[in-house]
Amino acid sequence: MERITPWQEGYLRDNPKDVAVLARLRRGAGRDAAEVPDLWSLVDTGPLHIRTGELRPLSEQELTRAENAVHAALTLWALHQQSRGRRMHRAHTQKQPTGLGAAVRRLMPPNDIDEPVRKRLVRAGTAADLTTLTQRLRDILVLLRRADIPLDYGLLAGQLYTWQWPGGPSAVRREWGRSFHAWQQPEPSDENTTHTIADTDKDAL
Question: In degrees to the nearest 10, what's the CA dihedral of 90, 110, 141, 47?
Answer without folding.
Answer: 30
